[in-house]
């Protein structure tokens, strides 16, 4: 059995319509914390977390990009070269599901060819005021080959499952690449030799 390697590269992106809970998902995943008064992301923030996946350790390097339209033009610098993208919508807001489809279209047109896409329907703790049926999200995810999970950052529902699902979709690199012992490197490759970095 090989030693578990840890990826060295940034690059998982999260996208959202503003206010759907993307930053809360990242905060819950990385810090196991929920803030009712979290401020909107300005530009982008960056967080990391290393998690076990089978016999390996996977290092998630997460760019949490702003959802506001005025920051839309900045998004490509974060998703180019990323191994995966989490696109978030609010299950209580049908409009956010339409916006999600625009992000998917952009990623398919301008993102990395083999990017893993995960769709997170957040705020599943508010299912009594649901506007987006899970069936619709599943059908759409299947049509684009994406992972789909309903989450609640507030109640810590399916957050770990979302990122574990992404880990399972990303193929391991050659064990000899950059001496990484079979670990998965996630994200934006640099043009320099050695470990990938931003």
From TrEMBL:
Note the Gene3D superfamilies from the entry: P-loop containing nucleotide triphosphate hydrolases (3.40.50.300)
One GO BP? regulated exocytosis
**Record carries keyword Protein biosynthesis:** no
Just give the chief location class. Answer: membrane
What Pfam families does this protein's entry cite? Ras
Subcellular location per UniProt equals: Cytoplasmic vesicle, Phagosome membrane; Early endosome
Per the record's keyword annotation, is Heme included, yes or no? no
- Record's Gene Ontology CC terms? early endosome; early phagosome membrane; phagocytic cup; trans-Golgi network membrane
Q: How does it sit in the membrane?
A: Lipid-anchor
Q: What UniProt keywords apply to this chain's record, in alphabetical order?
A: Cytoplasmic vesicle, Endosome, GTP-binding, Lipoprotein, Membrane, Nucleotide-binding, Prenylation
Q: What ranges does the record give for the region Disordered, renumbered to this chain?
A: 171-198
Name the residue ranges with Polar residues bias: 189-198
Q: Name one GO molecular function term.
A: GDP binding
**What family is this protein classified in?**
Belongs to the small GTPase superfamily. Rab family.
Name of the featured protein: RAB31, member RAS onco family
């Amino acid at each position: 059995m090989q030693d578990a390697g840890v990826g060295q590269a940034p690059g998982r992106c999260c996208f959202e319509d503003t206010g759907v809970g993307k930053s809360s998902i990242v905060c819950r995943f990385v810090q196991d914390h929920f803030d009712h008064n979290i401020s909107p992301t300005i530009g982008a923030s960056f967080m990391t977390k290393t998690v076990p996946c089978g016999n390996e350790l996977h290092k998630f390097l997460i760019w949490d990009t702003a959802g506001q339209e005025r920051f839309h033009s900045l998004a490509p610098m974060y998703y180019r070269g990323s191994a995966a993208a989490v696109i978030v919508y609010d299950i209580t807001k049908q409009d956010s599901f339409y916006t999600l489809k625009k992000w998917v279209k952009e990623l398919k047109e301008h993102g990395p060819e083999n990017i893993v896409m995960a769709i997170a329907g957040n705020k599943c703790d508010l299912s009594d005021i649901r506007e987006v049926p899970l069936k619709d999200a599943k059908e759409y995810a299947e049509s684009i080959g994406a992972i789909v999970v309903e989450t609640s950052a507030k109640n810590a529902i399916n957050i770990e499952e979302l990122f574990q699902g992404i880990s399972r979709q990303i193929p391991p690199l050659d064990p000899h690449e950059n001496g990484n012992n079979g670990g998965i490197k996630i994200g934006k490759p640099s043009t320099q030799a050695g470990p990938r970095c931003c």
